[in-house]
Specification:
Blueprint: E1 2-8, E2 11-17, H1 19-23, H2 27-45, E3 49-53, E4 60-62, E5 71-75, E6 83-84, E7 96-98, E8 103-104, H3 108-116
Parallel strand pairs: 1-5
Antiparallel strand pairs: 1-2, 3-4, 3-5, 6-7, 7-8
Length: about 120
């Protein structure tokens, strides 16, 4: 199963596809891959960085969409104006509320730092 995760001010958005169904030509699986490719290209054009993440291996920065990847995680730098950290815990990290009212249960910067350090974890 493949997954594209885009970290944003809303938390993370996901698109998943079944690689075996893609190979078999399943229309829904092929449509999911096309959508993931479209989102990947759109986010890269907006300045997002992408990492291929596999358990037990260092995260690998990628510039091209890879439908064979188990998981691709994308980050775009968020401006301070995009976040409302008034409801953060004392450290300013962890659970926080975004301007649109949604809550984020993960610290995106910690996830990003883990990827950069090569700690591919299951998120």
């Amino acid at each position: 199963m493949g997954m594209l995760r885009v970290m944003s001010r809303r938390g993370d958005d996901r698109v998943t596809w079944d690689e075996q169904k893609v190979l078999a030509g399943d229309p829904e699986a092929l449509a999911a891959v096309r959508e993931a490719e479209r989102i990947f290209a759109q986010e890269r054009a907006r300045g997002a960085t992408a990492f291929r993440v596999e358990p037990g291996k260092p995260a690998q920065r990628i510039d091209q969409f890879d439908a064979t990847a188990e998981q691709i995680i994308m980050f775009r730098a968020l401006s301070v104006d995009e976040l409302d950290l008034r409801n953060s815990n004392d450290s300013g990290l962890g659970d926080h509320r975004h301007r649109d009212g949604s809550y984020c249960l993960a610290d995106h910067s910690a996830i990003f730092a883990g990827l950069v350090a090569g700690r591919a974890a299951s998120f």
